[in-house]
Amino acid sequence: MIYQRLVSGLRDSGLRLTPQRLAICRVLSESKDHPTAMMVYHSLLPEFPTMSLATVYKTLNVLREQGLVLALGAAGDGMEHYDADLDPHVHLVCVKCHRVVDFMGEDIYTIQQKVASSSGYQIQGARIVYYGVCPDCAQAADTARERVS
Ligand code: ZN
Ligand code: MN
Predict the structure, then answer these.
(1) For a surface tag, which of 13, 24, 127, 146 has the fewest beta carbons within 10 Å of its beta carbon?
(2) For the chain, how far is it from start to end, CA to CA, in angstroms?
(3) What's the predicted TM-score (pTM) here?
(4) How far apart are CA 48 and CA 134, in angstroms?
């Protein structure tokens, strides 16, 4: 389970398992929307009004250094997005609304196995990101165009 993996990672790194840090692990393990540090922070603020953004960054950095969380880069918004789901999958980034969604498929497993076997590498993770305009944003743009013409 992802949550347990993150918590033991924090424990191994010697960080104290405060309620805040455990909550950060919970958000990361449950989240499907590849949150930024800011998004994690805001989602926990009602529960932990005194938590600092630095705590979120620190926890994310430790988890990333341990290879338990993948940093996906920016989604056209200049912010790092994170993913605790380490199963091989591809990401689709919308450059308009900056959403990051998963694309799963057997081909992606196959590619990773091929890369591993022909390179001799023990693959620990992959960051495959496609950029584009999501169906919602494309449709919104179409509707706006129709209104103008
Ligand atoms: Zn979009
Ligand atoms: Mn993902």
Answers:
(1) 146
(2) 52
(3) 0.88
(4) 34
Q: What is the pLDDT of residues 79-125, one digit of tens each?
A: 999 999 998 899 999 999 999 999 988 899 899 999 999 999 998 88
The domain locations on the chain are 1-85, 87-149
The domain made up of 87-149 has a fold known as: Dna Ligase; domain 1 (3.30.1490)
CATH architecture, domain 1-85: Orthogonal Bundle (1.10)
Q: Which two tokens stand for residue 131?
A: 């950029």
By CB neighbour count within 10 A (0-12 exposed, 13-18 middle, 19+ buried), where does 41 fall? buried
* pLDDT tens-digit readout, 7-21: 999 999 999 999 999
- Residues around the ion ligand 1 (C-beta < 5 A): 94, 96-97, 134, 137
pLDDT higher at 43 or 125: 43
For β-strands 100-103 and 80-83, DSSP reports them as unpaired
User: Of the ligands numbered here, which is closest to the C-alpha atom of 104?
Assistant: 2
